Amino acid sequence: MASFTPEEDKFINDEFEKIFQFCKGCKDGKNEELIRKSFELANKAHYGIRRRSGEPYIHHPIAVAQIVAQEIGLGTKSVISSILHDVVEDTDYTISDIERLFGSKIANIIDGLTKISGNFDALSMQAENFRKMLMTLSEDVRVVFIKLADRLHNMRTLESMPEEKQQKIASETIFIYAPLAHRLGLYAIKTELEDLSLKFHYPTVFQEITEKIQATEKQRLAYINKFTMPIINKIGETGIDYSITGRPKSVYSIWNKMQTKGVPFEEVFDLFAIRIVFNPTSPELEKRESWSLYSIITDIYQPNPDRLRDWVSTPKANGYEALHTTLMGPEGKWVEVQIRTKRMDEIAERGYAAHWKYKGSNDTEGELDKWIKEISKLLETPESDALEFLDEFKMSLFTSEIYVFTPKGLLRRIPKGSTALDFAYDVHTNVGNRAIGAKINHKLVALSSVLNSGDQVEILTSEKQLPQREWLEFVITAKAKSKIKDSFKFERKNNIEKGKELLEKKFEELNIIITSNIYRKLLAGFETKSKDDLYCKIGRGIIDLKSVNKILANKSKNKWIKYWQLQIKKTTTTKKKKTENANKTKKVELIDNVDGTNFTIAQCCKPIPGDDIIGYIDENDKIIIHKRKCEKAVKLMTEFGDKILTPEWKSQKIYSYLASISLSGIDKIGIVNRITELISKDLQVNMRSIYFNSTDGVFDGRIDLYLYNTYDLDKLITDLKKINGVNKVIRVGN
Ligand code: MN
């Protein structure tokens, strides 16, 4: 049997002992004995096994236990479960062994962890897996905490995984685990997960931003000092025990802002955030003393009244408490100041575990429990599509909340952007299904009206009302959507059958033999996603079968469509026969070529040569090219890791790609002329469409162009910016 060197054995023991420094309660009573017992078992079970990186396998469970104790702040049971978390899955030990040795509680947690682990390539498995994970929330929330710690350690050591695995794991992390950490209030872990995902998805971007942060550090510190000096002096006079810090935004949040707002690093980074953490004189005075600090600071700097956030009086759903205000600092820069007590700070960084600690027990009551109950309710809906649910769940994770009141004055918390109808469904499915109108603050409004915090909402219902299709266009909550869809599912089934019959009749009439080619043409011609979608639209009468002839006759050869050929080279030599988890590394080159079109440019993100891209093999074996950062691509990478290719552009400047730019500025006479002249004459770029709109002396416009690559596009943008009057030029669409 393979074994470790004495140095390795010593290292393993030292790392294990560290857990006791991080977890105070782990030494109490029988706890220490049990933890040592779990370590002995795990060490024996994993003995001689190494991770892909070469280090002893046991490093991983120990590291997970350290994260659980130190970074999440959980206690003995969680530490033991972390140490044992891979034992049942990877070794000969069974759940009943664990139960016999450590009791049913720990056995249950490990069972939960084992169920939600593993690598799932198929889409449905993934969603199912995720559903399982959420189900376990209601059983024991520690399962999810440990799962997050497990994922965090795997992300920290992702370097040694093969490239394809890295991409898949990083996608999953950004798609599921980071939002989950956020929802559980684990701010520090969420941030690290996001940063690590970015590092593996865009190594260059990550490095660039990291370097820029370091390069601007001095400048930033100088400004923070200048800003905080008067505050420090003033608070010093009061004798309050406090600390003040100004820390940089995370790499991911900077990148995210740059992407969504289309602004350069410098503009994002020019935002400062300062945090004041203090020790209240007594727990009861927390609130009052937070506000007196607020008052001291706003005596020095002018606050922006629109940006005051009081999460001390009403904490966020994930437990977050703090006062936030934005002040006008020196040099006219806005600075955000967060005021928290030590307790609030710990909750903000470490989430619910810290919450319990302050409550003095393992009290899982409160907000988290409410949230878990909501999720469980949704999961109980038997027919709700697991994947759709995943999508909508993700949406609801990202939205923050507002507070509204029922006619009786009860407070309800719903996602920001919710409409009156969302509120109706939140109250009860029957209230939603029967809703005909609403009163917001006693005024009659449409069901689609968006609610604001503080609104009092009353729903008007009628027994004759039925859910309407248009409702799906404006409701935003997962609950409302799934309830409305449920009521349509039955109807859809009927329409599909009807549509199929009608189409088959039509084919008979036209004397056409049905081939997959014909279906492909029809799907594209009617802009439908699937056969069922096509049938359903026919059944509902949205698609007129009269145009079938025309579509089938159409030789869809748009002159702008580019003809490329894909050459697929397998770079890995297939030494072994097909093993279960064989890693297929496919390298694909996109080469200009006049014959063949076995791939397509995705319309959602319209990549052009020079963009960082991925290829996805769809069900018809067509390869669809997306930008790597396209939201759809991230999803595809998560769900179909094995169908993702990494193609490379090999542009030979023969054909061109469609890209769009938007621009705005001061409307001067002739400016549109100048712009179009620059594009078509000076740079010899083809425009497909151009649109300008001018109001009150300011114009904004959008131009669709044909280009060869990103280099040309960048040059065009630079040149356009030079035109007098043009203010902003950005590429549109991701
Ligand atoms: Mn693990």
Please characterize this protein's 3D structure.
The structure is a single chain. The chain is α+β, with helices and mostly antiparallel strands and 734 residues long. It has five domains: 6-208, Hypothetical protein af1432; 210-358, Beta Polymerase, domain 2 (2-Layer Sandwich), CATH 3.30.460.10; 487-579, no CATH class; 585-649, no CATH class; 657-732, ACT domain (Alpha-Beta Plaits, 2-Layer Sandwich), CATH 3.30.70.260. Helices cover 50% and strands 17% of the residues. The chain is built from 30 helices and 21 strands. Helix 2 packs parallel to helix 4 (76-83), helix 3 (59-71) packs antiparallel against helix 4 (76-83) and helix 10 packs antiparallel against helix 11 (187-201). The site of manganese (II) ion (MN) has 4 residues, from loops.
Concise summary:
By secondary structure, this protein is α+β, with helices and mostly antiparallel strands. The chain has 30 helices and 21 strands. It folds into five domains: 6-208, Hypothetical protein af1432; 210-358, 2-Layer Sandwich (Beta Polymerase, domain 2), CATH 3.30.460; 487-579, no CATH class; 585-649, no CATH class; 657-732, 2-Layer Sandwich (Alpha-Beta Plaits), CATH 3.30.70.
List the helices and strands and how they pair.
Blueprint: H1 6-22, H2 31-45, H3 59-71, H4 76-83, H5 87-90, H6 95-102, H7 104-115, H8 123-139, H9 142-156, H10 163-183, H11 187-201, H12 203-215, H13 217-238, E1 241-246, H14 251-261, H15 265-269, E2 272-279, H16 286-300, E3 302-303, E4 309-310, E5 323-328, E6 334-341, H17 342-350, H18 352-359, H19 367-380, H20 386-398, E7 401-405, E8 411-415, H21 420-427, H22 429-433, E9 435-440, E10 443-445, E11 457-461, H23 471-474, H24 478-510, H25 516-525, H26 531-539, H27 548-553, E12 564-570, E13 586-592, E14 599-601, E15 613-617, E16 623-627, H28 631-639, E17 644-650, E18 657-666, H29 671-682, E19 686-695, E20 698-707, H30 710-722, E21 726-731
Parallel strand pairs: 2-6, 13-17, 14-16
Antiparallel strand pairs: 1-2, 3-5, 4-5, 5-6, 7-8, 9-10, 9-11, 12-13, 15-16, 15-17, 18-20, 18-21, 19-20
Helix pairs in contact: 1-3, 2-4, 3-4, 3-9, 4-7, 6-7, 7-9, 8-19, 8-20, 9-10, 9-11, 10-11, 10-28, 11-12, 12-14, 13-16, 17-18, 24-26
The protein binds manganese (II) ion.
